Every structure is written in C-alpha cells, then in structure tokens.
Amino acid sequence: MKKRNYRWIFFVLHRFNSADTRGRSSISTLFSILGIAFGVMVLTVILSIMNGLQMGYIDTIMQVSSGHIRLYGEKEDLTKAENLNLHEAFFIFQESQTLMQGNYGRQHGVLIRAVEEDIMQKDKGFCEALKISYGAFNILKEDAVILGYELARQLGVKVGDNVNIIAASGSSETSLFPENQDLTVTGIFKTGYYEVDSSFAFISLESGEKLFGKESKLYASVKLQNQNNDAAYISSLNASSINLKSESWRSYNHAFFGALRIEKNMMMLLVFLIFLVVSVNIYNGMRRSIYERREEISVLSSLGAYSKHIQALFIANGFTIGLIGASAGLLLGLLLSVQINSIFALIENIVNSVLTFVFILFQSSSDADFAVFSPVYFYMETVPVRIFFNEILLIFLFGIFSSSAAAMAASRRILKLKPAEVLRYE
Fold this sequence. Notes:
The protein contains 16 helices and ten strands. By secondary structure, it is α+β, with helices and mostly antiparallel strands. A six-stranded mixed beta barrel has the order 2-3-8-5-7-6. The radius of gyration is 32 Å and the shape is elongated.
C-alpha cells in the first residue's frame, strides 16, 4: 500500500459505510442518523416559530410604541433633528394617560397619543404594523380617534360611536369639561400585540393640544434603516449640539427584550441536549464498531496505513452520519416551518371530523371546535414564522459537528491497538 496514495481511504470508507447501512451496525447507524435529523428538525421548527412570535412583538413595539430612538425636547429642537436627515422615518407626537368611557358606562385606561396627520405617509413601518380592521386611519376630522381592537371591544364601541375622556394627565393648561371631552371613533386597528391593541388610541396633534394642553416639550419617534445603528445616531445627534434627551430601544424596552432573549437561549440549550444524547449514542456505536473491526484495522496497519489515516476513516464515517442526518432534518424542518399553519389546519380538521363522528355515534352534540391555537386562549390568528439564515446554518453545522466530534473521540482507541497482538491468533 502506498502511503501517499489516499484513494484507498475513500474506497475503504465506502465499504465501511455500505457495511454500516446493510450489515452488523445498520441499526446503530440508522438511529444515529434519525437522532441527528430529529434534533435539527425540532430545533429548526421551534426557533422559526419562536422567532416569528418574538419578532412580531418586537416589530410592533418598535414600529408603533417606542421607535428605534425616542427624543424629548422643544419642538424647534425636534425640527432641527428631523432636518439632519439621519433617519428613515421621523414623526413628532404627544401622549398622555387617560381614562376613557365607552358605551354602557364601560371604562378603561388608555395611552392616547397625538400624532401628525400624515403619519401613515411619513412612516411606512408604522403603516405596515398598524393594520386597520374597521373604518380608516382618519384623524383629519376634529375630535376623531383611532382605537385598538381590544380597547374598542372592552369599551363596547364601533366606528361612528363616541367615547368620552373623563380624566387625563396633562399640564396645568389642561382643561377638560364634559361638553368638550367627546371623541368620535373613525377607525379601529389591530397589531397582533395585545398590550398595544388594548391600551393605545391615536388622535391628531391639534386634538391633543385641546385635550392635554399645549406642551412646550414634545416627543419624537425616530426609525432607522438598521436598528443596531442607534448608538451612532445618538452620537451624531449629540455632536450637533441639539438640546434633546434621547432614549434607545435597548433601554426603553430593556426588561421585555431581555426576557425574550433569555427565553430563546434557554430553549436553544434544552433542544441542544438532543444533540448531546445523539452524540453519546454515536460515540458508543463507534466504539463498538472499532472493536468489531479490530482485525480489519490491524490488517490495514500491517499493510502500511498510518493510524491517523485509519482514524480518519471513522471520523469521516461520523461526518457522513451527521451530514445525512443534518441535511434530512434541515429540509424537513424548513418544510414544516413554512407549512406549519397548513399542518395545524389539517390536524384541526382531522380531530374535528373524529369528534363529529363520535358525537353522531353517541347522539350528542357539541358547539366547541378543536383548535391547536384557539383565539380564546391565544391572541393570534395564525402562527407566525421567521427563518434566519445564520441560525439555520448554526443548527446544521452543530448537527454535523456533534457526530464528527463523537466519532473523533471514539476513534482515539485505534491509536492504542497493537496489530501484532490482534493478529497473533488469527
């Protein structure tokens, strides 16, 4: 055997893989591949759904509630900041906590925000995140108000009804009397984030001055092309000597975003344990395979093969297991992620058909339909999915690495084999 001719390694590797899929180690190899595939599939689906849920909330908070950066100061200074053109979207607003009353005497606390009348044209992100369910986003009319979907439901109002501001926090200029506190609902919006839909209302800046007084200091919501450029924007703003207070989205929603990050990290840690279990299975299976093939290993060593080349055979075998399992799991995981709502709909149809058959069989009836994510318990219409390339690539590589590392650890036993002792009685 020529030591510098490495073609024999691929030939022997092919024979080893063929024996593993049809011979004595076929069950162990199959379970190893299935384990890697299952881990990659589960982690892909879980992260895709979790990213969809988290990013849906984060996008709503940033686009509707806080913006990427929030500024506070005099209106003249806010106008100067807008003229710097360092942003993607910029709008001035005023907000205050109020107590609102709807039909049937229903009352609810509201964060009412007075915004510019052309906000839907100035801020595309706001326009996409805030979907109008009924009516239109029309605050041009005097005393017009746009309510969140859940807020309108709790107040028992619809488009065209009146709501009453019975208490408000504002400046000393605020003057609220029953005869000038009525607002007309011209639109109802829904973002998919319950906290916003149940507590936000929008009016024009003119109506805001009428209700809360003419504040000398106002807020501004700044949207950037890249939310991670918040520090650079604040530095540029400070360098321009404009007297404004600024707050980044990182600090404004620090507790909420931190909780989401911890939740995601813990979920990844728990699911990665699947790979650890599979790696142990591959390690034990590879050690058994090495013991069963000690005669072949000794023959190869006697013919002049280096121990590290023989070790590379088993490492490549583990790499092949990981590659096949990770590829199959990734494809299946992406397919399930993309079609997750169709799959849930199919499950619901099957379960409801079975329940209908049972009810007919036992001559009973039920008005409740089975739903995987029932709107009664979950504030969502469909399961959102977000797939990030870097996370999918990390999962795929980790699936390959776990099997390769297990094979490398198990194949170290080859270095301790002594061909003369193994072949002595053969």
